[in-house]
Write a structure and sequence with these properties.
This protein is α/β, with parallel strands linked by helices and about 210 residues long. About 50% of the residues lie in helices and about 15% in strands. Strand 4, helix 4 and strand 5 form a beta-alpha-beta unit. Helix 3 runs parallel beside helix 4.
Amino acid sequence: MTAPPVRILLCDDHAVVRAGLLALLGSEPDIEVVGEAGSGEEAVALAAKLTPDVVLMDLQLGEGIDGVEATRRIAATGVHVLVLTTYDTDADITRAIEAGATGYLLKAERPEELFAAIRSAAQGRTTLSPPVASRVMARMRKPRPTLTDRELDILAQLSQGLGNRDIARALFISEATVKTHLGRIYDKLGVDTRAGAVAVAKEQRLLP
């Protein structure tokens, strides 16, 4: 008896990209696209309504929630999410995996790799693009960054979503001092955003 096709929901804010993926995936008899979403909110709603086997998720989605937050909400319902993006920074990879992504694929991969990753994701198996896998391994081998007590204090405040002014008030220091410490934290963690710093800090278990 032939197995039912893998049901896919596409999420990308570029209609041309979705059209290309739709045509590409249509060439595979065991893969069926059951829906398309142009935003994170739409993807979350459609995933709940259609219950696909796999959601192909871009990370940058314009206005509204980004692909990482959409991944977190969808993965929490038990639907597998395969990130398909052009971004391969440590922060992006860490945030997506932390959010529950089953796999992380780059758009530069060959179609055969995409098809194989979709089939693996449908079975709950992790698939990473070779460059992504290399970055993950390099980060695992890297010694744990050493932060000062003050930097850890600021990181803890950052994880609660506080802005520079609120952090300065909470720790009785100036905003300029907060900015200086943030710059050092970013350098040590190899990130360039607040969200990236918090994600890496959680991965490295630097936060309580």
